[in-house]
Amino acid sequence: MLPHKLAFCLLPLVLFQQIALAQNRKPPTEGRLAVVIDERLAALRATPQLNGKLVRRLGRGRLVAVRSVKTSVDGISFFLVSVSSRTHGWIQREAVVSPSRAGDDRRLLNLIERSQGFDCISRARIFLDCFPRSRLRPEVLLLLGDAAEEVAAKLSTDAARRLNDLGDAPEFSYYLNYSGLDRYNRQRIGFVFDRSSKRFHYDGAAWRELIRRYPKTPQAAEAQKRLRSVLG
Q: Class of 4-101 per CATH?
Protein backbone atom coordinates (compact mmCIF):
# COMPACT_ATOMS: atom_id res chain seq x y z
CA MET A 1 0.00 0.00 0.00
CA LEU A 2 1.25 3.49 -0.81
CA PRO A 3 2.06 5.81 2.11
CA HIS A 4 -0.66 8.43 2.56
CA LYS A 5 1.47 11.38 1.45
CA LEU A 6 2.75 9.58 -1.64
CA ALA A 7 -0.77 8.50 -2.59
CA PHE A 8 -1.96 12.11 -2.26
CA CYS A 9 0.87 13.31 -4.54
CA LEU A 10 0.03 10.71 -7.18
CA LEU A 11 -3.71 11.47 -7.13
CA PRO A 12 -3.62 14.48 -9.52
CA LEU A 13 -1.52 12.49 -12.01
CA VAL A 14 -4.01 9.61 -11.96
CA LEU A 15 -6.90 12.02 -12.49
CA PHE A 16 -5.18 13.70 -15.42
CA GLN A 17 -4.44 10.32 -16.98
CA GLN A 18 -8.16 9.54 -16.80
CA ILE A 19 -9.02 12.88 -18.41
CA ALA A 20 -6.45 12.29 -21.16
CA LEU A 21 -7.87 8.82 -21.79
CA ALA A 22 -11.35 10.30 -22.20
CA GLN A 23 -9.90 12.74 -24.77
CA ASN A 24 -7.99 9.94 -26.57
CA ARG A 25 -4.75 11.82 -25.91
CA LYS A 26 -1.62 11.18 -23.90
CA PRO A 27 -1.12 13.66 -21.03
CA PRO A 28 1.75 16.06 -21.79
CA THR A 29 4.97 15.69 -19.82
CA GLU A 30 7.88 17.87 -18.67
CA GLY A 31 5.97 20.07 -16.25
CA ARG A 32 3.13 20.49 -13.75
CA LEU A 33 -0.09 19.23 -15.24
CA ALA A 34 -2.93 21.72 -15.64
CA VAL A 35 -6.23 21.92 -17.51
CA VAL A 36 -7.79 24.71 -19.58
CA ILE A 37 -10.89 26.16 -17.92
CA ASP A 38 -11.41 29.41 -19.85
CA GLU A 39 -11.13 28.99 -23.60
CA ARG A 40 -11.62 32.75 -24.05
CA LEU A 41 -8.09 33.24 -22.71
CA ALA A 42 -6.60 30.03 -24.07
CA ALA A 43 -4.62 31.41 -27.01
CA LEU A 44 -1.30 29.58 -27.20
CA ARG A 45 1.28 32.12 -28.33
CA ALA A 46 4.88 32.00 -29.51
CA THR A 47 5.90 34.71 -27.01
CA PRO A 48 4.56 35.75 -23.56
CA GLN A 49 2.62 38.73 -24.92
CA LEU A 50 -1.04 39.33 -25.71
CA ASN A 51 -0.04 40.35 -29.24
CA GLY A 52 2.34 37.42 -29.64
CA LYS A 53 2.01 35.19 -32.69
CA LEU A 54 -0.86 32.71 -32.30
CA VAL A 55 0.29 29.09 -32.36
CA ARG A 56 -3.18 27.64 -31.82
CA ARG A 57 -6.21 28.07 -29.62
CA LEU A 58 -6.84 25.46 -26.94
CA GLY A 59 -10.28 24.17 -26.03
CA ARG A 60 -11.78 23.93 -22.58
CA GLY A 61 -10.67 20.76 -20.83
CA ARG A 62 -7.40 20.48 -22.77
CA LEU A 63 -4.46 19.24 -20.71
CA VAL A 64 -1.15 21.11 -20.67
CA ALA A 65 2.12 20.80 -18.75
CA VAL A 66 3.35 24.04 -17.16
CA ARG A 67 7.11 24.49 -17.50
CA SER A 68 7.75 28.09 -16.39
CA VAL A 69 6.08 31.46 -15.84
CA LYS A 70 6.85 34.96 -17.06
CA THR A 71 5.12 38.31 -16.61
CA SER A 72 4.75 40.64 -19.58
CA VAL A 73 5.43 44.37 -19.47
CA ASP A 74 1.68 45.04 -19.10
CA GLY A 75 1.45 42.84 -15.98
CA ILE A 76 -0.10 39.72 -17.53
CA SER A 77 1.38 36.43 -16.31
CA PHE A 78 1.98 33.72 -18.89
CA PHE A 79 2.78 30.04 -18.46
CA LEU A 80 5.13 28.31 -20.85
CA VAL A 81 3.27 25.04 -21.48
CA SER A 82 3.68 21.84 -23.44
CA VAL A 83 0.55 20.66 -25.24
CA SER A 84 2.21 17.64 -26.85
CA SER A 85 5.71 16.44 -27.58
CA ARG A 86 5.79 18.78 -30.58
CA THR A 87 3.65 21.71 -29.51
CA HIS A 88 4.42 24.29 -26.84
CA GLY A 89 3.90 27.99 -26.26
CA TRP A 90 2.77 30.66 -23.83
CA ILE A 91 -0.74 30.84 -22.38
CA GLN A 92 -2.31 33.36 -20.05
CA ARG A 93 -2.20 32.15 -16.45
CA GLU A 94 -5.93 32.61 -15.81
CA ALA A 95 -6.80 30.18 -18.62
CA VAL A 96 -5.76 27.10 -16.63
CA VAL A 97 -5.93 25.51 -13.19
CA SER A 98 -3.88 22.80 -11.52
CA PRO A 99 -4.75 20.63 -8.49
CA SER A 100 -1.18 21.08 -7.27
CA ARG A 101 -1.51 24.87 -7.11
CA ALA A 102 -3.01 26.31 -3.92
CA GLY A 103 -6.14 28.39 -4.47
CA ASP A 104 -6.92 27.13 -7.95
CA ASP A 105 -10.02 25.34 -6.68
CA ARG A 106 -11.39 28.63 -5.35
CA ARG A 107 -10.52 30.40 -8.60
CA LEU A 108 -12.36 27.79 -10.64
CA LEU A 109 -15.37 27.96 -8.33
CA ASN A 110 -15.51 31.73 -8.86
CA LEU A 111 -15.56 31.16 -12.61
CA ILE A 112 -18.29 28.50 -12.30
CA GLU A 113 -20.43 30.92 -10.30
CA ARG A 114 -20.17 33.46 -13.13
CA SER A 115 -21.01 30.87 -15.81
CA GLN A 116 -24.37 29.70 -17.12
CA GLY A 117 -25.80 26.68 -18.93
CA PHE A 118 -23.37 24.32 -20.61
CA ASP A 119 -20.38 26.50 -19.64
CA CYS A 120 -21.29 26.16 -15.97
CA ILE A 121 -21.81 22.42 -16.27
CA SER A 122 -18.58 21.66 -18.13
CA ARG A 123 -16.48 23.79 -15.76
CA ALA A 124 -18.13 22.17 -12.76
CA ARG A 125 -17.27 18.76 -14.22
CA ILE A 126 -13.63 19.81 -14.59
CA PHE A 127 -13.66 20.89 -10.94
CA LEU A 128 -15.11 17.60 -9.72
CA ASP A 129 -12.64 15.59 -11.80
CA CYS A 130 -9.56 17.60 -10.82
CA PHE A 131 -10.20 18.55 -7.19
CA PRO A 132 -11.46 15.37 -5.45
CA ARG A 133 -10.35 16.55 -1.99
CA SER A 134 -11.42 20.20 -2.16
CA ARG A 135 -13.63 21.47 0.66
CA LEU A 136 -15.51 23.44 -2.01
CA ARG A 137 -16.98 20.34 -3.68
CA PRO A 138 -20.40 20.66 -1.95
CA GLU A 139 -20.85 24.12 -3.48
CA VAL A 140 -19.86 22.86 -6.92
CA LEU A 141 -22.18 19.84 -6.76
CA LEU A 142 -25.12 22.08 -5.88
CA LEU A 143 -24.26 24.49 -8.69
CA LEU A 144 -23.94 21.61 -11.16
CA GLY A 145 -27.36 20.23 -10.29
CA ASP A 146 -29.02 23.64 -10.42
CA ALA A 147 -27.45 24.44 -13.80
CA ALA A 148 -28.58 21.09 -15.21
CA GLU A 149 -32.18 21.67 -14.12
CA GLU A 150 -32.15 25.13 -15.68
CA VAL A 151 -30.84 23.62 -18.91
CA ALA A 152 -33.63 21.00 -18.81
CA ALA A 153 -36.25 23.73 -19.25
CA LYS A 154 -34.57 25.05 -22.39
CA LEU A 155 -34.05 21.55 -23.76
CA SER A 156 -37.77 20.86 -23.28
CA THR A 157 -38.73 23.92 -25.33
CA ASP A 158 -36.18 23.20 -28.05
CA ALA A 159 -37.17 19.54 -28.35
CA ALA A 160 -40.90 20.35 -28.58
CA ARG A 161 -40.19 22.78 -31.42
CA ARG A 162 -37.90 20.44 -33.37
CA LEU A 163 -39.61 17.10 -32.84
CA ASN A 164 -42.55 17.21 -35.22
CA ASP A 165 -43.81 14.73 -37.82
CA LEU A 166 -42.96 11.84 -35.50
CA GLY A 167 -42.88 8.28 -36.81
CA ASP A 168 -44.23 5.03 -35.39
CA ALA A 169 -41.94 4.83 -32.33
CA PRO A 170 -43.33 5.89 -28.91
CA GLU A 171 -43.31 9.67 -28.53
CA PHE A 172 -41.19 9.68 -25.36
CA SER A 173 -38.45 7.73 -27.15
CA TYR A 174 -37.99 10.57 -29.62
CA TYR A 175 -37.50 12.98 -26.75
CA LEU A 176 -34.99 10.78 -24.96
CA ASN A 177 -33.10 10.36 -28.24
CA TYR A 178 -33.12 14.12 -28.90
CA SER A 179 -29.72 15.19 -30.25
CA GLY A 180 -29.66 18.24 -28.00
CA LEU A 181 -28.99 15.92 -25.05
CA ASP A 182 -25.77 14.56 -26.54
CA ARG A 183 -23.23 17.08 -25.30
CA TYR A 184 -24.70 16.92 -21.80
CA ASN A 185 -24.47 13.15 -21.88
CA ARG A 186 -20.75 13.52 -22.63
CA GLN A 187 -20.53 15.60 -19.43
CA ARG A 188 -22.24 12.73 -17.56
CA ILE A 189 -25.43 14.73 -17.11
CA GLY A 190 -28.62 12.68 -17.34
CA PHE A 191 -32.22 13.78 -17.78
CA VAL A 192 -35.58 12.14 -17.17
CA PHE A 193 -38.68 12.85 -19.25
CA ASP A 194 -42.12 13.58 -17.85
CA ARG A 195 -44.51 12.15 -20.43
CA SER A 196 -47.57 14.05 -19.17
CA SER A 197 -45.98 17.51 -19.30
CA LYS A 198 -43.51 16.61 -22.08
CA ARG A 199 -40.67 18.18 -20.13
CA PHE A 200 -37.17 17.12 -19.25
CA HIS A 201 -35.84 17.27 -15.70
CA TYR A 202 -32.34 16.73 -14.37
CA ASP A 203 -31.98 13.23 -12.93
CA GLY A 204 -30.50 14.62 -9.68
CA ALA A 205 -27.22 12.67 -9.63
CA ALA A 206 -25.11 15.59 -8.33
CA TRP A 207 -27.65 16.40 -5.62
CA ARG A 208 -27.70 12.75 -4.48
CA GLU A 209 -23.91 12.60 -4.39
CA LEU A 210 -23.89 15.80 -2.34
CA ILE A 211 -26.33 14.36 0.19
CA ARG A 212 -24.47 11.04 0.36
CA ARG A 213 -20.93 12.40 0.70
CA TYR A 214 -21.49 15.69 2.55
CA PRO A 215 -24.71 15.14 4.56
CA LYS A 216 -23.99 17.73 7.25
CA THR A 217 -23.38 20.67 4.92
CA PRO A 218 -25.87 23.48 4.22
CA GLN A 219 -25.65 22.53 0.55
CA ALA A 220 -26.91 19.01 1.33
CA ALA A 221 -30.04 20.49 2.91
CA GLU A 222 -30.61 22.55 -0.24
CA ALA A 223 -30.09 19.46 -2.38
CA GLN A 224 -32.81 17.65 -0.44
CA LYS A 225 -35.20 20.50 -1.27
CA ARG A 226 -34.25 20.35 -4.95
CA LEU A 227 -34.89 16.61 -5.16
CA ARG A 228 -38.31 16.94 -3.52
CA SER A 229 -39.25 19.86 -5.75
CA VAL A 230 -37.99 18.47 -9.07
CA LEU A 231 -38.41 14.71 -8.77
CA GLY A 232 -40.93 14.34 -5.97
A: mainly beta
